TrEMBL record:
Taxonomic lineage of the native organism: Bacteria, Bacillati, Bacillota, Bacilli, Bacillales
Keywords of this entry: NADP, Oxidoreductase
Species of origin: Paenibacillus terreus
Name under which the protein is recorded: Aldo/keto reductase
Entry's family note: Belongs to the aldo/keto reductase family.
Domain of life: Bacteria
Amino acid sequence: MAAKNLTDTTTLHNGVKMPWFGLGVWQREDGEEVENAVTFALKAGYRLIDTAAFMNTLGIYGNEEGVGRAIAKSDVKREDIFVTTKVWNADQGYESTLQAFEASRKSLGFEYVDLYLIHWPVKGKYKDTWKALEKLYKDGYVRAIGLSNFQVHHIEDILSVAEVRPMVNQVEYHPYLTQKELHAYCKEQNIQMEAWSPLMQGKLDVPLLKGLADKYGKTPAQVVLRWDLQNDVITIPRSFRESRIIENADLFDFELSVEDMEKIDALNQNKRFGMDPDNVNF
């Protein structure tokens, strides 16, 4: 069932409620810009914030402290905000994941994290990493645990050793990469799908999307984000401008027809703008 308003949630298989729509903060270094974006989002009614514990020379993520500061300053109660972070590839493994989580928790300034994900399926490591996530979950430091960028065969590997089943799989998902097989498998396994880069990193100059935007009186971005929600996929578009953060969330006064949903589905090219999960080398 598609979300009817910005605060609507889906219930994960362990009973935890997770918002359908949120803010992603990748590709920005820690600091005022990230704090402002989270502040704008919370003010606009967002209750899902997605970050990760990683930064390279391009400043991709590494902004947990900024996220934590914005939440601490907000009038919104911590328990009303759903925060996701992730363990980075270099920190995968059992003990190193436990240490990485503690560093993330301190950076955020939280007693607990709502959702903790394995960022990428690093071969030879992700099973041990999953066992660490299970411990964190059982010990009450995280409310839910899951995966990011895992394909069907990776998930099957996890399920072969899991005592706690993954609750979420966050993957690249957009009209050029509809991931039908993976989506169906996750539904079958009661794993909630979540989309990163839902707006194809801004490459929305697509005639069909423009036509549908005109038809519904919306932007191409809003059409795509609505498509996500009607496909029962949580979505976390990235933005740092207040006007765009507000605009992205203006999705709840229209509904795409079945025919138009199918037209968007037909745009699929199996095209990735991000890395291939089967060739993780970073």
